[in-house]
């Protein structure tokens, strides 16, 4: 079984090694947070760090249950520190430790401690982390496998498949590393993803928000799955539920949406005024963290390949370090994505195909309205005429684009 090295994430940890700051790794459940710690610890050992300088604890392991009190945790680690060397402290699933920030802060204050933590993302995203560790941490946001990582991790037989067949498998079996590690087929992958899905809902949303109507939460979740890439508001969802004889108010829907995005099951893409360079408060779009999970829950999924592709492009832009918004230009002009990195915007339109001139002109029109010189792209699944240039707007094959280095 090949272990995926997740090189970009490993490089981030290496770059932050020995810096006087707490390293926090966040991400949806089972995206590989614990594994990247294992890979990084192997790197440390390869660089001459002694095993005694590394202390690694996972608080989902019953062996460490007695350490879920912050005083006991701090005492345990302190007694095992090498006094004259740097110590590398890995605290996995730290949310199980009551008042964990007190232990983490005390270790952080010691000059010979380099501290790394992960935790259930719902708790971290709730604002707790920023409040408790203000100014003392750097965050690595992990995501499930990109299409490029998926292709790289395929066994030798499947590596020789055409690109579009690899893409089909990516949509069928998903992007969670465990599925690729064991080369699961669609049926096994669905069973595994079903477990992740329900764990996220019950542990990261229901439990944290104390939700009593779990069936309604599932209905809202399935609505979002059906409507990836569509404009959505809490009122829209509430009205839809009422039309199905399911009573819920917009405030409750908004609370559910916050829980689902805090858990990173979904991402919210807010609208961005391109002319005014400001965020707009109303109407967002939502994208799911893994398309195969969405396809597991939504019937007739193959008929919506345009929105599926849009979802994948959104995730890829986030992986590449962009802040991603839905672009608004004037009163009626919409750009699929405005991606901003280091203060520099790029503009993206996404379509399943643009071979017909009518469709091509429709997709190019919003990009042509933007009067600046920043990069503009049209991404499609077209193989014929997949790579073109229209007055500076670059048309690219989306699958090949996803394989490019960021």
Walk me through what this model shows.
- With 406 residues, this protein is of the alpha/beta class.
- It has two domains: 7-141, Rossmann fold; 147-403, no CATH class.
- 45% of the residues lie in helices and 20% in strands.
- A hairpin with a 2-residue loop joins strand 9 (333-341) and strand 10.
- The longest helix is centred in the middle third of the chain and has 24 residues, at 186-209.
- It is globular, with a radius of gyration of 23 Å.
- The mean pLDDT is 93.
What's the topology here?
Layout: H1 7-15, E1 22-26, H2 33-46, E2 54-58, H3 70-79, E3 87-92, H4 100-108, E4 113-118, H5 121-132, E5 137-141, H6 147-153, H7 156-159, H8 163-173, H9 177-181, H10 186-209, H11 214-226, H12 234-243, H13 250-262, E6 266-273, E7 278-288, H14 291-297, H15 305-319, E8 323-329, E9 333-341, E10 344-350, H16 357-369, E11 376-380, E12 388-390, E13 393-397, H17 398-403
Parallel strand pairs: 1-4, 1-5, 2-3, 3-4, 6-8, 10-11, 11-13
Antiparallel strand pairs: 6-7, 8-9, 9-10, 12-13
Helix pairs in contact: 3-4, 5-13, 8-14, 10-13, 12-13
